[in-house]
């Protein structure tokens, strides 16, 4: 059975006239790096809230379908039970840190789960090291940069050792270099620790290269799903209004002009440069 | 015209955010200020409408020293749109929100009505005229905030992080809007991290670091300089990145525009085919 | 902003900062009770001087003087009221003993302010939060306290940004009569409130996602342990309390005026 199995999910927020997510079916396997994208208001954030049961428990509203995460039906369990399996990282780093020091924030989830002190110390230190913030563990969240704050947020869900980490536009407030560092941290967690990652992002130029499973949403439904190279090369994707990486776009433009390039659609500048060098040098 | 002469600024807690910055922005110019958080960008642009006054040095807006006048009178010519629309929206309807500044500037009732309609149409939010701004989506709220500043038609427009949280299409609309303003000879200053957005607009780019300007020039020059960009916590735009990796082909490296890139590559292919 | 600077959380260490906040609080209460027991200058002077070592060891002289200066106006007010009432109460005569009593009452007030300021100046909020968590105070209160401390500087900055945003749209806060000036703040207050509500929802969501309420008995990454210094402070507190009670009931304290 898939790690995350969503069947015909339709959800309407309380007081809303139409559903934010409509008839969504997804299967996500263990160890995948999934990228979800789509225009503003397409239902990405709403979907994130379904992964750990914030919907329907915290948000109420009307829900239909089935959401099974790590073998657990999220409709029947509390969000705090799901926290051991799914860690959620939100967009605004400032509003998800509430302790007076970095390490207290990282420990928050473990404290709630009544983990005993020695074990907690070990897990907290592990999470701090994984995200590269061990040195700033005694600082106040108010004194550190946005990029560091966001790494604290990741560490604080990581400390609970979840199988899945869901990140909802984690870098939109950050400068490109800090964003890059965040993506590197996530990528490493995925590859080295085998944590399943679900990343929601607009900025495909920075993230497309990490994924092998792209989900494209529009108006509450899933429009396209699968291999990112295939999806980003489709005309439909451009029409939905997704920001296709410039390297991919340039590849398409050149192909149209009859340029002889490899068949693999590039997702990053590296991949495109490689193909161009091959095409132009071997003549 | 904005002229800053060697300005320094220290916050009351003694943190020196600007350490001697000089710049001249002429009417009709389009400038993007980039740099890491804490580099002093926000502090700098708050000097352009007098929200902050330099502790040392001088800022002149259209020849007027900002220390000799009020924010309200400077604001008449310098519109400032803050990053987060929620930091300014407070009215019951979008219409009232947009007329707020016009009332503060004591416009005539008839003119206020015209201006509100004009601004609503300019940003295509006319259908929300009587709606509460709090009920709108993030992107729409951003447009209301922008409209509320455009309404009094200032000569200079300062936009702080206009692309944050915006999707591709919203950014494209914003870019078109900026180009439209530019065609009308408005002065536009944006502060942003969004390197792809800047690459598409290709304005004059200013990089800041630790309270100083470290680079100032045309987009194609600055955005293709990996050393300077790294100092400012910015990565190369993707097209420029491709070209730095094509070094072996002897191509120019200062390319940021995708169509220019295409034309260049096709030319190379032709040359090789011959 | 300077008002909020004082509330900003800073990590400082000194022998006084390292003392257990619970013990420090007991000491403050003892000083408080003792100050109430006496109404003559000499013992109050003693209580005042007794706290100076804490101030110097903790190296918080500057902030301490500032907090006393803040209380100076109220102290002066207490002094004048006392003088005036005794002047009118004694058929328009003022005795030296009246002046002494007024000074004593003022001094009592200063001692109370002093003891609390020493406590807050030498106790970091996270330490205090920890003390609250480990006392019988329900965790929700301790959490509310630390979160409040965490977000005070954030909200102060936000208020500044909102004011800037509205000023940039031509709002002049200092314009008009009193009523108009109060009305001027509406465009600042509404966004501030709306954003605080939005922020609290996001916080709640983040807390839920991090297993808030998973078990009745929470654990804690840190625990406060009593060290030698804490026991010494406790002993000192008990000593002061017993001494103060004994002296106030069984020893007649000379007034300054009676000495001459």
Per CATH, the superfamily of the domain at 1-70 and 189-234 in chain B is P-loop containing nucleotide triphosphate hydrolases
Helix/strand order of chain B: EEEHEEHEHHHEHEHEEHHHH
3D shape of chain C: flat
Largest sheet of chain B: 6 strands, mixed
What is the strand content of chain C? Answer: under 5%
State the distance separating the first and last CA atoms of chain B. Answer: 52 Å
Portion of residues within helices of chain C = over 70%
Shape of chain B: globular
* Helix residue percentage of chain B: 25-40%
Q: How many distinct helices of chain C?
A: 12
State the CATH topology of the domain at 1-70 and 189-234 in chain B: Rossmann fold
Mean pLDDT of chain C: 87
Proper CATH architecture of the domain at 1-70 and 189-234 in chain B: 3-Layer(aba) Sandwich
Mean pLDDT of chain B: 94
Strand-residue fraction of chain B? 15-25%
**Largest binding interface between chains:** A-C, 47 and 36 residues
> Number of domains in the coordinates of chain C?
2
Q: List the secondary-structure elements of chain C in sequence, H or E.
A: HHHHHHHHHHHH
**What strand line-up does the widest sheet of chain B have?**
6-7-8-3-9-10
Discrete helix count of chain B: 11
Kindly describe this structure.
The complex is a heterotrimer of chains A (283), B (274) and C (260). Chain A contains twelve helices and ten strands. Chain A has 283 residues and is of the alpha/beta class. The longest helix of chain A has 17 residues, at 176-192. The radius of gyration of chain A is 20 Å and the shape is globular. Among the domains of chain B are: 1-70 and 189-234, 3-Layer(aba) Sandwich (Rossmann fold), CATH 3.40.50; 237-274, no CATH class. Chain B is 38% helix and 22% strand. Chain B has helices at residues 41-45, 71-75, 94-104, 109-122, 138-150, 168-183, 195-201, 219-222, 226-231, 238-244, 258-273; strands spanning 2-10, 16-25, 30-35, 56-61, 64-65, 78-81, 156-160, 187-191, 204-209, 212-218. In chain B, the strands form two sheets. A six-stranded mixed beta sheet of chain B has the order 6-7-8-3-9-10. Chain B is globular. The termini of chain B are far apart. The mean pLDDT of chain B is 94. Chain C is an all-alpha fold and 260 residues long. Chain C has two domains: 14-123 and 226-259, no CATH class; 137-209, no CATH class. Chain C is flat, with a radius of gyration of 24 Å. Residues 1-9 of chain C have low confidence and may be disordered. The chains are: A alpha/beta (283), B alpha/beta (274), C mainly alpha (260). Chain A binds chain C through residues 49, 52, 54, 57-58, 78-81, 83-84, 87-88, 90, 92, 94-101, 103-104, 107-117, 120-121, 124, 138, 140-142, 153, 156-157, 160, and chain C through 8-9, 11, 124-126, 129, 143, 146-147, 149-150, 153-154, 199, 202-215, 217-223.
